[in-house]
Amino acid sequence: MTWFQITFFFPVLSSSLSPQPTPAVQLSVPCSSKSPSDPSSPTPRNPSLPSPSPPADGDGLIGPGHPPRLASPLPLPAPPAHLMFLSRIVLRDPDSIDSPAASMASSKKLVTRDEWERKLRDVKIRKEDMNRLVMNFLVTEGFVDAADKFRVESGTQPDIDLATITDRMEVKRAVQSGNVQEAIEKINDLNPTILDTNPQLYFHLQQQKLIELIRAGKINEALEFAQEELAPRGEENQVFLEEIEKTVALLVFEDIKNCPYGELLDVSQRLKTASEVNAAILTSQSHEKDPKLPSLLKMLIWTQNQLDEKAAYPRINNFSTAALEDPAI
């Protein structure tokens, strides 16, 4: 049992930093507390840092893996019915499940696989609604070719012009490839107000530019850029200041593995910044910044967790296959 005949992968790139008070507005190096004169201090960072290979061209850039392949015809998927049925049970008393099986030793209701699947089949979902969910995901994540093919196959019209997706993906690819200045210029060409009205996004792009300078071993240029472009923003925002300090700390260590902020040089940091840019452009186009499908997955997880307290039933544990697993008795 699968979600669709289209396989999706939903990357989760989230991180948060809790700001700590800083006594003065100045750049410091939080990775090391030793004096530069201390012979045991870490060796300065080697100027020639390896650069991760940029993602390959094409829609596959929009996340790990490849673009979804379309299958025709598109059947009605079962898991959304699973979600709707679960929601009904959680909102009502679980005793409304008429199960011929005996109750478990505990107070939980036991539901057999046959009964569960029978009730799932009773939940009716319109194919048009499912198609709109698929189109929403393809458009939001930028799979322009797949969205166009799906439009032809299913007759589902996207809610934005597919031509605008190409421009948005060019910006995203520029960030993913480390060409931050090119991305900034493309954003301004697309809509100059995006960066003017989103100082956090602009700061993160500038921070990514500093990371790319450090990655390339341009130490003097990186320090100058941090002092002239980023430090003034740190004076106005404590969170920005801490981010600057963590980024500059990359210069101290020859082996990034010894620095607690070495993940900033990982390709996942590029993807995180690119995702933020993508969301800002979508918002400027009056389009929701996140696809609906991941939200439905989260709702399914929450609903199952709620029902686990009241009943034993076939649940979905592996969301890549959406296979029902019998309850442990």
Automatic annotation (TrEMBL):
Residues 39-55 have a biased composition (Pro residues). Keywords: Signal. The lineage of its organism: Eukaryota, Viridiplantae, Streptophyta, Embryophyta, Tracheophyta. InterPro entries: CRA_dom, CTLH/CRA, CTLH_C, LisH, Ubq-SigPath_Reg. Residues 17-74 are annotated as: Disordered. It comes from the Eukaryota. Residues 164-221 form the CTLH domain. Pfam families: CTLH (PF10607), LisH (PF08513). Residues 1-16 form the signal peptide. This is CTLH domain-containing protein. The keyword Signal applies. Residues 28-38 have a biased composition (Low complexity).
